[in-house]
Design a protein that fits this description.
Length: 173
Amino acid sequence: MTELTLTETVRERLAERAALETLRNDFKRAEADALARIAAHDRRLRLDELGIDIAKVKFAETFLYVHGQYERAGEARDVARQQAIRWFATQKPLRDPYDDLRREYFGTKSYDRWHGQSCNCSYGMGPRHGSIIFEIGLTKEARQRDLSAEETDAAIYYLVNLERIQSAAKAPA
């Protein structure tokens, strides 16, 4: 075996470092995927333990989203939740043309020492001042059609049980 030149040594060293970086990145992705699958299984078990209808929850999550933790959403968190429940019951604006989940999400914001102020914003937008800390909305696809009775029921079920559903998602295994 012949000894490598300095140039070859540097090139091979660079190639080995790149291969090592690829291995590390592959491991990080595989680890994150495995941890996400474990967390999904843990959530399923906790929901079942709490007596939550898992099929309804999963179904609701196909057209309804909730971003942010309810318990940290501030003073008006229940206003947003109740608005959403009322909207699902009628699927009409609560105050024409405002408070319509087809046009805006219902949420709360944090602004200048007022944590949890009610704030409904158009999809893709945020408040002029402060930042959204909690929001309830419809997926883009769901905003463009009428919801079925089963979807409405699943959404209301989800929102009524929101605190328990979210607590199941973060509870330790």
